[in-house]
Amino acid sequence: MTALVHSFSGWVFRRRFPLVCVFIAITAVMFTYALRLRVDASFNKSLPSDHPYIQNFIKYQSEIGGANRAIIALMAKDGDIFTPEFFDQLRRTTDEVMFLPGVDRPQVQSLFTPNVRYIEVVEDGFSGGNVIPADFSPTPESFARVRENIVKSGKLGQLVANDFSGAIISAQIIEQDPRTGRTIDYTQVADALEALRSRVESETNGAVQVHIIGFAKVIGDVAAGARGVLIFFGVSIVITALLVWNYAGRWKLAAAPIACSLVAVVWQLGSLTAMGYGIDTFSILVPFLVFAIGVSHGVQMVGAFRTQVFEGSNNSRDAARAAFEQLLMPGGVALITDTIGFLTMLVIKIPTIQELAITASLGVGLILITNLFLLPIILSYLRLPWKYGEWVASRRARWDQMWARLAREMKPAPSMMIIIAAFLLGGLAWWKSAEIRIGDTQAGVPELRQNSRYNQDTHTITSEFSIGVDILSVIVQTVPNGCVDYEVVTLMDDFERRIRTLPGVQSVISLASAAKTINSGYSEGSLKWRILPRNPQTLVQAVSPIETATGLLNSDGSVMPIMIFLTDHKAETLRSVTDEVKRFAAENPSPKAQFLLASGNAGVMAATNEVVQAAQMPIVLWVFGAVLVLCFLTFRSIRATLCVVLPLAIVSYMAYALMVFLGIGLKTSTLPVVALGVGIGVDYGIYIFARLQAGLRRGDYFEDAMFNAFKDTGGAVVFTGLTLAIGVSMWIFSDLKFQADMGLLLTFMFVVNMVGAIILLPAMARWFWRHHSGKTRAPFPVKT
């Protein structure tokens, strides 16, 4: 293998100039593609399409409506809604919502839409009509009439605030714009909603406040927050460049790994466009990770190059070639391990996560080319002043003293103490990690901070209305005309009564409860007649006023959703409701009615949580399985593999324990952190152990081999660990909560993995190679 690598390096460095030209040409082409990169956000991409809940959701979406809604609440700052100004804004806003991109117009509901009606009992029978009649005029008499109609319609608390302080416009958003047939751009929808808010609040001088929630608005707010990511990216580049310059000592030496890492990012973004992909708002962090990983491996190459210069290589080309030969195998294995680790996220059958896996693995695979080939070629052209060797010598003298002392202290007794302490900490973390919660741990949208405008709007709507914003719909699948089958509707009524008592359930609406109300209306509204009549003709009479536009049944009465409005979408709330639904269905089997989970936005979240829970262990096993196999193939030693992998496992469980302490749930935005942390953390161990193993195979005493490994790679490992941590720690200040959480977790994993590679790995290796004991030599003298 050594001869093969030497022969290959000779071929590379004999063709330096043509290869540089090829790299420049590819970069120019990829840059033009990268400029055309688009933000590709989609509601359907966030759905785990293989999950039974989502299959039911998609199957009946066209009949009962989907989970992708936009809710616009107009709230009177003072007083109630019964003013000419408020009704004028509500009417105009309803008309504007009708023409938003992707809006399903028949599904729009507000006081001004014809599908919002009332029914009342009069002397001659029943009377009804639109809540706001055709002859409405803004007079006190008309307002009084509308107030009565709202109460009669049952929309108080649903479309109108409980205290009449506001009104809602609800709209279903569909992926395909019905006018153009193209997939809608959610950022355009969000911008249109924000423009609508600005118009209303400016025209009324703040007398009418607008609150907007829904998937489209989430995407818009996330995209707006993601624009701030560019600032963090710029700051990270500057900080990283300063740190690399401090490590390398020369600007041109520091610029080389920075430039090569940026080239990898350009290639990554250009390749995504060339393959027809966009970048999802939740994958926007990946290019920054690719840049950080590229710098990490680039610094290793700079460190090896600097060592060759320090030890007397004749020229930059010889030093770069020696560094290339030294790092090609360990660097290649580390990057291949990273790539496979990211690809393991494909086991999560959610398109958003799978695209993140493809984006990350593609970027890391390109680093394999830019940092292991382009970087040493660039270094070979650099001309360093002769005084640079003196600067390196003075810098290394301080580090070598520390490394010599650390290697000297790696005796069996201290090493065993380190191992025991690490495994006790790992055991405690493993025990605590069992408490981690799947899904969201807080109300509102977890991608945004609690004080964000969106989450404040969510709080306002949930506190002023009775419907809540998190809906889990249980689909009752029955026979045609099952809506007038006493056995079916009674079973629905029993289910509704049982589910209503659960903690976290705000209200429940179904055809059964609506039919009971209508039936009492036939008896002058008497509460004792609020029942489901057994007589088939009477039951038909109670159900017939319920139109399909209400979303409570389909055209032939064979599908009837039971809409459960939740107070929040926390993991425990969703789990308690879905468990109760499954329990009721198991206890009440019926040949006529099946209770199917689930539709509504909360139903989608419940399905996603179950997918994450199912994928949690497989993704960990795949990541560590890939690391185990590649480390074993690289080092051909079970002992070496354990030295590299066990510290990673301990740090992974420590990260889970940290999530428990910080109240961060395991969900689609945090699950990839494990793969990312392990994939990057393994690099430290591979680089250090590769140098340690080379010394042990030469027959060096363990202390000498460990000192040489620290001397050659330890400084670069410490530097890259701190550089990566500092770079991603900037994300903690982001407006996006999920980005701040990822930044915090990755900072922790980068630092602790680095400490594990420097402390725990040598301690374990010391016990696996006890026969290689001897007296540590003083640091190697500086060659001049």
TrEMBL record:
It is a multi-pass membrane protein. InterPro entries: MMPL_dom (IPR004869), Mycobact_MmpL (IPR050545), SSD (IPR000731). Its main location: membrane. The keyword Transcription regulation does not apply. One of its GO terms (cellular component) is plasma membrane. Gene3D superfamilies: Multidrug efflux transporter AcrB transmembrane domain. Pfam families: MMPL (PF03176). Keywords: Cell membrane, Membrane, Transmembrane, Transmembrane helix. The chain crosses the membrane at residues 17-35, 229-248, 254-277, 284-307, 327-348, 360-382, 413-431, 619-638, 644-666, 673-694, 714-733, 745-769. Residues 249-381 form the SSD domain. SUPFAM superfamilies: Multidrug efflux transporter AcrB transmembrane domain. It is found in: Cell membrane. This is SSD domain-containing protein. It comes from Opitutus terrae (strain DSM 11246 / JCM 15787 / PB90-1).
